[in-house]
Specification:
Elements (H helix, E strand, L loop, with lengths): L1 H12 L5 H19 L2 H4 L6 H8 L5 H13 L3 E4 L2 E4 L1 H13 L8 H8 L1 H9 L9 H12 L1 H13 L9 E5 L5 H9 L5 E6 L2 H8 L2 E4 L2 E4 L6 E5 L15 E7 L8 H11 E10 L2 E2 L6 H8 L6 E2 H10 L2 E7 L3 E6 L1
Parallel strand pairs: 3-4, 3-8, 4-7, 8-9, 10-11
Antiparallel strand pairs: 1-2, 5-6, 9-13, 12-13
Helix pairs in contact: 1-10, 2-6, 2-14, 5-14, 7-9, 10-11
């Protein structure tokens, strides 16, 4: 099992970067692009204080987030700080681009990078100015179209399934929380030979509607997901005030990929995962974790995109244990497998 996962990772990512290296390069690149697109890098060609930067952006309400953006950019070598003033380091920007180009996952054009370039600068400005965003916001929903097309995200989904046992999950009832526009449900069905009962769930009806229309090739015939007999669809309360519309102990596997970091109430989601899972049921989570309690480029990116942040390994394990999970395994700070007691 471990050998297969190692091979898949090496095949998909080229040289084996550490998870922290990969995340730092990737998300610092996204943040640099956002700063470039809103004109902040050009503005910082001469040293500027924090108040000058606030005035340039205009009507800043999230001063904490702006400070975090500047701090992680200094840590990433994109900005320099001297006597309390910030200045762009174009040499640092070029070094970052060189590192980014070394990551093989960017060879497919890095569709997430293009999404950041196209949609997220405006979102970042709105968030800094106090706007509330969530996964149903149009620009964030559009970003998930890019996610669905990304080979690196597909690789991540496959690895999470492999961690859970792969084809040994055939015949099980699988709940996919955060089905988006159909990438996860179609992959799960294809990987299990359509031999499972799949429940595709998301937090917004328009997202679920899109998912239902996803086309798959079953036995040489093009079908839409809603036409398949072994899949059902549910819409979850995005504010988590209501429980999932599922019975206690009704599913064998909960699968959720790149969802929990978008919610400040992730613990509530985990409690619901535990409630609907059968005893000894499997929880599979794709999530960015970190070893230390510090603000990272990844945290800042998710916050600017309308999400929450990453969690430390200890923090996430504690949430799982409190919800009744045991035998917790974490792979490359990105994939988690746990069992319900």
């Amino acid at each position: 099992m471990k050998l297969k996962l190692y091979h898949k990772t090496k095949e998909g990512l080229g040289r084996l970067w550490s998870a922290e290296e990969l995340a730092n390069i990737t998300y610092t690149s996204y943040l640099t692009l956002i700063m470039e697109k809103i004109g902040l890098l050009s503005f910082l060609e001469t040293p500027k204080g924090f108040e000058d930067i606030e005035e340039f952006i205009g009507e800043v309400r999230r001063r904490d987030l702006l400070r975090n953006l500047l701090e992680v950019s200094v840590s990433g070598g994109v900005l320099q700080r001297n006597e309390g003033k910030f200045r762009v380091s174009w040499d640092g920007v070029e070094r970052l681009k060189s590192l980014k180009n070394q990551i093989d996952s960017f060879e497919d054009g890095d569709v997430v990078y293009r999404a950041a370039e196209t949609y997220l600068p405006k979102t970042a400005l709105e968030v800094l100015r106090g706007a509330d965003k969530d996964r149903s916001s149009p620009e964030i929903s559009l970003t998930y179209y890019w996610h669905d097309k990304s080979s690196i995200f597909r690789l991540g989904r496959e690895m999470l399934l492999m961690l859970g046992g792969g084809r040994r999950l055939k015949g099980k009832t699988v709940l996919d929380v955060g089905c988006r526009f159909g990438a996860e449900p179609s992959l799960i069905l294809e990987h299990l030979g359509y031999d499972c009962r799949l429940i595709a769930a998301d937090f917004y009806p328009q997202v679920v509607d899109e998912c239902m229309q996803k086309e798959v090739n079953k036995d040489g015939e093009i079908r839409r997901l809603f036409e398949l007999e072994n899949i059902s669809f549910v819409t979850l309360d995005p504010y988590l005030r209501e429980p999932f519309p599922l019975d206690d102990s009704s599913v064998d596997v909960v699968y959720t990929f790149q969802v929990l970091q978008w919610y400040s109430s992730a613990h509530r989601l985990i409690e619901e995962f535990s409630r609907v899972l059968k005893r000894k049921g499997i929880l599979l989570v794709g999530i960015p974790l970190k070893e230390r309690e510090e603000v990272t480029a990844q945290d800042v990116f998710y916050a600017l995109a309308g999400g929450y942040r990453g969690f430390t390994v200890k923090e996430f394990k504690d949430m799982l244990k409190e919800a009744g999970f045991t035998r917790i395994q974490i792979f490359r700070l990105s994939f988690v497998k746990a069992k319900k007691r």
